[in-house]
Amino acid sequence: MIIQPKTRGFICTTAHPEGCARQVQRQIDYVKGQAAIQGPRNVLVVGASTGYGLASRIVSAFASGANTIGVYFDKPAEGARTASAGWYNSAAFEAAAQEAGSKSFSIVGDAFSDEIKAQTIDLIRSELGSVDLVVYSVASPRRVHPKTGEVFSSVIKPLGDTYTNKTVNFHSGEVTEARIEPATEDEVRQTIAVMGGEDWQMWIDALREAGVLAEGATTVAYSYIGPEITHAVYREGTIGKAKNDLEATALRLNDQLSSQGGRAYVSVNKALVTQSSSAIPVVPLYISALYKVMKEKELHEGCIEQMYRLFSERLYAAQTPVDEKGLIRVDDWEMREDVQAEVEKLWAELSTENVYELSDLEGYRREFFQLFGFDTEGVDYEADVNPEVAIPNLR
Ligand code: NAD
Questions:
Q1: What ligand 1 atom has the least distance to the C-alpha of 84?
Q2: Known catalytic residue at 234
Q3: Can you list the domains of the chain with their CATH numbers?
Q4: Ligand 1 pocket, 49 CB below 6 A?
Q5: Which of 32, 180, 253, 290 gives 20 to 30 Å between its CA and that of 102?
Q6: Which one from 224, 234, 286, 291 is the annotated catalytic residue?
Q7: Stated pTM of the model
Q8: Is residue 153 within 8 Å of residue 194, measured between CB atoms?
Q9: Alpha carbon distance, N-terminus to C-terminus of the chain
């Protein structure tokens, strides 16, 4: 099959196996070029196939030599349809991890369900005994509640007032004004149910009850704060409410785990191009301006650099530094005053006419396609490629 990108809005419906494999290898090579970390031994990553979860899994395996189990929601190729990017990423990761001598296993299915939790526990018991790090990196538009069956949808909306700000169509470069009506109370409730901490708590409870969470285990989930420009739609909007809930869950989990020497954290990460962030209005334009400034200042990081820094300088440092709210911050370079001052200056001037000059929209777009294995050096996109790729240790 000749595989080309096919986009629908901010979604790309095709993925390229060879390109995804190269993107994963690039991340592995980065980690191999860094110092080893005295980190975790057996790791469970929930939401492990793309973005921050995948990078966490790569750092665990290749900087710390850990065995990993990845849980994710991805689809294999079928007929004329390619597999999803996360499928190809995971296949490439597992092949490389095995070659490097780490055990790695995949469970594909709905992490919110009781069945997938039970299946994961069985796998931990039979293959690893226990896990000493649980990374929770799920980003999803919906969740079926495992006890009540209620279906929740998350929305990205402001609270109280209509929000207007600049946004960009990152395919055409057109800068327009996004106008988002405020959320209803029920939308807030549903967004918290999807992106808040309840499912993370359920995972940790289930692992503890089953006796497969090692003594002194660490767990971490990811959050975002970001600049004033996006506050109304992100941090002070529906998703921010969900993140507040996630952060409160970390404090609760930390209390519960600390009696056995365990720890729970939320790490606030940098804004980056991922499948989830490209769906948020305003954010792609902000990221384009941010990339421009951070690249010029030689401060730019992608998911893998962020996660390597999280593991080496935060989670597995002699002491884990946290802010006054107990949060780990690896968004520190993004939030630096000089960086934000320049982004703000650019923001005021950005328009369709100057967007490629004032921001790194081209870089944004390239990274977007790279998420799906396109626009990747060394891949012949005219060549026939087999879309059916097996994940070595799929359970
Ligand atoms: P992503 O879309 O790249 O990854 C999401 C992962 O969740 C994928 O592996 C996907 O398969 C998995 N997933 C989704 N629904 C699932 C389900 N029902 N069952 C099992 N797996 C499921 O997202 P990301 O941007 O890496 O986000 C991960 C976390 O990081 C989120 O909490 C997000 O808010 C946070 N974060 C993201 C950014 C950013 O800019 N991208 C910044 C800071 C924090």
A1: 11
A2: yes
A3: 7-145+193-279+301-334 (3.40.50.720)
A4: yes
A5: 253
A6: 234
A7: 0.97
A8: yes
A9: 27
